[in-house]
Amino acid sequence: MSDKTINHKLRDIQDKNADVELLQAAIGRQSITGNEANFVEQLREVMTANGLKPNTADFLPGRPNIWGHRKGTEPGPSLMIVGHTDTVNVQGWSNAWEGQPREDPFGAIEVDGEIWGRGACDLKAGICASLAALRLLDAADIKLRGQISFAFIGDEESGEPGMGVSAGAKDLVQRVKQGEIATPDFAIYVEPTKLNVYTAQIGFFIADVKVTGKSAYFGTPQDGVDALKATHKILTALWRHEEELTAGPSHDFVGPSGILVTDIKGGGYIAVPGECALSVIRKLRPGEDLDQAVAQFENAVNSAELSDEISVEIKYPAGRDHPLGGSPVEIDPNHDAARLLATCVQQEHAQGGQIGGAPYWSEAPFLVNAIGCPTVYCAPGDISVAHTFNERVNVEEYLAAVRSFALFMVAYCGTETGEEE
Ligand SMILES: [Zn+2]
């Protein structure tokens, strides 16, 4: 069957109401990091109905991942769709929309052609679009070769205390390495990209810096050691480091590296400030080494020429695929499957289907580096409204994603012999 025939057929038979209802039900399942099970329960039903024979297992007590697959009767490439089930919290959402239809962050209400709610774009639209795509192929009686699999994992978002360390992704990697889940040939991680195809992603580390001097009464400042003045020197050194980084090499898709001071707290008494704390986040370009970036950062701090009476303690609280942070990653922007996916999207959503890079960190490095599977980000939704009170996804874009993913499944896996014309 020609591509054109498939396009028309899929457009004709897509059950748009059912696809939208699937997403609305998913948003209705509150799954703030820690509460993934509530959404996994719904996914189990949907995946079972899709013939994916899902498995679940806790990556931490009461917090399950879910995965499942379907094999064609003929051999062919294997494709995996991956996404995180958790969302950030909703503090302040209801206040922001008080008295308005979108007051309930889990109401999934449609306003002006967009579905609103926590998780709408980050990333339940991606998960639902991929599952609806398989359902659409079934409705069209198109049988895939090879294998299609789905893995939905928890603990990606870092908003909740002590959580968001990619415990779900680590569990998935373990099961792939042990052979319990087959290594896919290619994966799509459904972070929002406005249906562009991101072959690259930044890396990051967060550093908490504690500067300790000695407090003293304001009338006798000579008895103290001023931690705020020392911090001033550290800040100057860090902003010099920032200038070097931003003036340095730039990546085609994600731009130059950078470092940002995000928080500072110090003093507070009418006295010599004895302590000061600051937090920074460093952005890494693909190709940069995380250990090396940390060493550069520590060199910058050490270049501040502080007195011996000042002590500096640095902690890296946000280890992900690397103990100190999240690695940057990229695959060849001309990777065949990435190009093919971009082409499929362009047929259904003219504004999407561009190859690009993610200005955010998510869990593709686990797939690319830990299990050696080329991975892209691609899904409906705009990352700039994720984690905000404006989180929403455009309905037409979401419906186009369902068809785009279905086209890609056909183009990538191929169809069984009886299906070809
Ligand atoms: Zn996300």
UniProtKB/TrEMBL annotation:
Its cofactor is Zn(2+). The keyword Hydrolase applies. Pfam families: M20_dimer, Peptidase_M20. The keyword Hydrolase applies. It comes from the Bacteria. Residues 207-306 form the Peptidase M20 dimerisation domain. Keywords: Hydrolase, Metal-binding, Zinc. This is Acetylornithine deacetylase.
